[in-house]
Description:
The protein is of the alpha/beta class. It has helices spanning 102-109, 156-163, 172-199, 207-210, 213-216, 229-241, 258-264, 288-296, 314-323, 328-334, 337-343; strands at 2-9, 15-24, 27-33, 47-49, 54-57, 59-64, 112-117, 125-133, 143-153, 222-226, 246-250, 268-270, 300-302, 360-363, 374-379, 382-386.
Amino acid sequence: MYIVGGTIKTMAEGDIRDGCIRIAEGKIAEIGRRDEIRIHPAACERVIEVKDGLIMAGIIEAHCHMGITEEKKGMEGDDCNETVNPITPYLRAIDAVNTMDAAFDDAVRAGITSAMIGPGSSNVAGGQFAFLKTRGRRVDDLIVKAPAAMKVAFGENPKVNYSGQGKSPSTRMAIAAMLREELNKAKAYAHRRKTAQEKGEYFEEDFTMECWLPVLNREIPLKAHVHRVDDIFTAIRIAREFDLRMTLDHCSEGHLIAEELAAEGFPAIVGPDLASRSKIEVQNMAFKTVGVLNRAGVLTAITTDHPVSLIASLPICAGLAVKAGLPLEEGYRAITVNAARVCGVEDRVGSLEVGKDADIAVFSGNPMEIFTRTLYTIIDGNIVYESGE
């Protein structure tokens, strides 16, 4: 298949006007100007003529609960939080994602081709996120990376959930202490496991501890639910103590400490700024946060936190961040290549480059503008949405 014409935003080598992309076996095979690539219409399935549209990498949602907290199904479709035990790192998002959730179709229609999906923030350690494509029936076929991150949460959510049950954690001190205790147990387990392997001895694996190994080995990050300044710094303190990778998810007061966060080097996933300030810890939430962090040098992505705000609003959230001071080009990056880097999947998605997955969104204009239409959404080289259907 070929996509020709329009303007290609590669998010890697700049923009290409009157461009051409050749797709083969689900990957980008060639990309360049139309006059640089020889088109063989008889040998391909289809040639899409874009004319004046914008061709860009499929949009990426860096943090959401799509398919775990299902729309229109109430308690029966809500599998986001196991709210009976504050330490559940062994839970796996892929065991709860319902790909038939209407949000997946909404995502595709908005040009969103992949998403980081996982448990909510009621628990201190909530479980494993997975990075998935947004079209398909069987979740196993949508996996780009699983596990992709380990969810941990600070602040109001664990406090409110467990103080109401009359057990820990009911304070921020307890949240931090319980996470430290769990990480210390995981380190001890990893040491015993390694020692047994080196000696050639039998070692009985513990399912509740094995999930921590990719975190301790820095293969995947902690995905830290943090809104307030104090919670952000507590998360950083613990990540430093245990030498862990981490993303700062929500980071609602990040604009108040932007220089410090830039010096620390942890990326931020900001949002859902389109939602209401429904609790104390988000009282300083604002669309300006992304721009302030970006200018300070923090790697930033944007989230809807679906269903807190709806998945299809992601490009509009980026547009509102641009309106509040984020440079336009950085708005594009926050929902494509930056999101891919933050999620650890930049080798597959996030930019239009030869060899990467053919996840492509074609728009009538800038997707951050409200009246822009999605013309085509392509995932793994397959057209999964076409305007007019």
